[in-house]
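Board notes, transcribed. Complex of a protein with calcium ion.
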Amino acid sequence: MNRILIVEDEEKLARLEADYLHNAGFETFCLADGLAVVPWLKENSVDLILLDLMLPGRDGLDLCRDIRRFSTVPIIMVTARIEEVDRLLGLELGADDYICKPFSPREMTARVKAVLRRMQPLAMEPVSNLLKLDPQSFRVSVGKLETELTAVEFQLLQTMYQQPGRIFSRARLMDLMYQDQRIVSDRTIDSHIKKLRKKLADLLPGQELIHSVYGAGYRYEAPNRNSD
Ligand code: CA
C-alpha cells in the first residue's frame, strides 16, 4: 500500500485529503507544522508528499529544498497562489507536480496517482544493469565475477537496487524483513548491510554502492560503468 504524507495546517482540508486518499487505497499521515516534517521523514518512509506552501514553522518552499537534500520522494506542492507555480516546479526546488487551491479531492487523488505512476517505471528499472541479481540463487554478478548472498542480504540489496537513489530508513528495511517472518533490530540491519557491502566491494573494488545517509538510512547508487 502506498504511504502518503499530508503536510497541511488547515485541519479540515487535511482531513478531507486524508479521507479521499484513504478511500483510494492509500495509507496517510498528517503533519500540520512545517518544523515537524524533516525530523518525521528521517524516521519514516513514504511514497509521496503532499506539501502545502504556507505553513507555520517552515514554509513549503524551504521544506521542499531541504527534503531534496536527502530524499527523492515525489513531492506535490499545494498552493493557493497560482503565480508561484513556475517557481514551484523549478529545477532548483525539485517538486514533481503542484495542485492549486481550491481543488476537488477527486482531482487531487488523480494527481497523486499520476505522479506515482510516472515514478513507477523509473523506479523499477535500475539505472545501470552492470550489476545483475539472480533471485533464484541469491547470486549477484558483475561480468564474470559473482558472489553469493544470504537471503536477507539479497532482499536488502534487491529492495534498494530497484529504486536507486531512494533513501530507505532502517525502519522501512525492517518492515520489509518482517514480511519475511524475521524479526530484526536496527543493529541487525546495520550488520547485514556491512556484510553486503563487503561482498559488493569484492565485485566492484573501490566503488561504494550502498551509501549511509546520516540520520536517515541507506541509499543504493548504481555502479559507474567507466571505472574498472
Ligand atoms: Ca496553509
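Residues 9-10, 52, 54-55 surround calcium ion (CB under 6 Å). The chain has two domains: 3-122, 125-220.
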